[in-house]
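Lab notebook, bench 4. Still working through the backlog of constructs that have no structural model yet. Next entry is a single chain of 548 residues. Request: give me the C-alpha cells for it.
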Amino acid sequence: MVVIGSGHNGLVAACYLARAGLSVEVVESDDVLGGAVSTVERWPGVLVDRGSSAHVIIRQSGIVEELDLAAHGLRYVDCDPWAFAPAPSPGDPGPAGRPLVFSVDLDATCASIAAACGPADAAAYRRFVEVWGPRSRAVAASFGRRPSPAGLIRSFWPLGAPSGGRPRTPGGELAVDFLGSGDALLDRWFTSERLKAALAWFGAQSGPPMSEPGTAAMVAWIALLHDVPPGHPVGGSGGLTAALRRRLESDGGRVVLGDGAARLLTGDDGAGGRRVTGVQTVSGRRISADAVVAACHVNVTRDLAGEAAPPALADADPPLGNGFGLVVRALTDAPPAYPGVSPEDALAGLQLLCTDRAELASAHGDWSAGRLPRVPVPLAMCFSASDDTLAPPGRHVVTIWGQWYPYELADGGDWDALAESEAERLVEAVDRYAPGFAASVQRLHIQTPLALERELSLLRGNVMHVEMGLASMFAFRPTPALSGYTVPGLPGLYLAGASTHPGGGVSGNSGRTSARLLLSDRRGLPRARATAGRALRRAAARLRRTPA
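Model written out:
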C-alpha cells in the first residue's frame, strides 16, 4: 500500500493498514514530517509549531488509545483550564467585569461564569452542557463513520429513541438546533454578551462565522471539553505525528520524506476500465501497490491522476474559499500577563480575546469583501508556559491566530509587503488585553494565507482544505460524488485528509475511516494470506519429518 502525504490523517491511515498486516509506505514531498501537524526549530533552541497547536477532536476519537500512541512516545499536556476570556479592557464601552475561565471542572466553570456574568447564565451553562453533552457525543461518533444515512442514524438515533414511552428529544427540536446558527443557539440560552462572544469565538475556529446555518454544533462542542480537554503534545504538535511514525515503523511500515508523489500509476482493471496500480515519485521511483490512499488535498489528488481521472474526480470543484487566517509565532521574553487572572488560569489553554460578537461579525464582513480586518480579533496560545521543552529558560513561544484574512485582496494588495504590518496589528490586539505584551516580543515568524500555501501546501491558505460550511460537510464533502472516500471509476484509490469528512482540524477520523474501508474491501485477502502461510508451515513440517 502507498499513502500519499505524511500529515496526521495519512499516518493514521498507514498505521491502521500496517497493524492489519499490510505492507505500507508513506511518501511525502516535504522534508518535514507531519504536514500541518509538525514542529520545527524555528530559532536556535526554540521549537515552534508549523500548523496546529491545540489538539481537540482527536482526543475524543479513541485513535490515540487504539494505536497505543503513548507507548510510542506521545504525551499530552492537558489544557486545563481549556480556555480563558478576558474582561473588557478599560477603554472598551460597557462595564468592566471579571475574566471568564473555562475548566474541565464544570463547577469551577459555572462559578467563574456566575462571578463574571451572573448566576442565571451560570445555571444556563450547566444545563447547556447537560443537554448538549449527548448531542456532541453523537456528533463525535458521526465523525468516525462514513457520512451515509445509515451512519448518521446510528450516531443520532439514541437522542430521539423512545424513553418511557416518549422521545428523549423531539425531532423538531433537534432539527432546529443542529441546522440553526451558533449565534441563534447562544441567544436562546444565554444573556451575557461576554459569555456568548467567548463561546462564539471558540466555535468559529472551525471556519464559518456563528451567524451561518448549521454552526450550532460547532459551538456546542464545548460540552465535551468538560470530559476531555484539548491537549498539546510535549515537544510541540509534531509529537503526535512523530509517535504515529514510530507506531507505523514498529509494524513494518516506512516513511520517505523529500520524495513525494508525482503521478498515480494506473492499469487495466480487466473490465475495460482503469484502476490504480501504484505511484511514481518525483525522483522517478515507481512503487507498485494494490491500493493508494491519497491523504493530500483533493485537488492535488485530481492533478496526480491526470488523464486517468474519471469524471467524479476530474470535475471536482469544491469550495476552497478566499483564505482563512493569519498566524503570528512570537518569541518573547515573557508570557502574556492578563490583569485579574492568574497565569495558571490564563495560559493553560486557548486565550479567547474577544468580548463582543460584533467584533467577529466585523472581521468576517471585511473578509467577505476581500479586505483586511479593520479590528483584528486574536486567539493566543502560550504552551511554553506548561512545556519547558519548547524554549530555553526566560523565553516563550506565543502563537497568535487571527481569523478571516483574505488570500486574495480586493485591492490587489501584496501579502509579502503587508505581512509585517498585519503581524504588528495582531500583536497590538493581544497587547490591548495583556499590557506590555508587545514590548516582550523579540522575534516574529509570520504565516500569511500565501505563506501557508507555500509552506504547507494549503491551497489558498485554507487550513481546512475545503470550506466547512453546511453545504460542504458530511455527504457533501468534498463533493457528493467523492464523499464515500473512494473515487467512482478509479478503483484502488482511497481519499483521506481534511478534504474529506469530517473536515479539518486535528481529528485523524478521515484517515482511520479510509483505512477501515480499504481493509473492508480487501477483507478476504488477509485471511487468504494467513491460510496460505499455515499451509506452507504444515508442508515444511511434513518435509522435515519425511526421511531423506
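Notes after review: The chain has 20 helices and 21 strands. The chain has three domains: 2-37+52-75+235-318+462-525, 105-227, 321-461. Flag for follow-up if needed.
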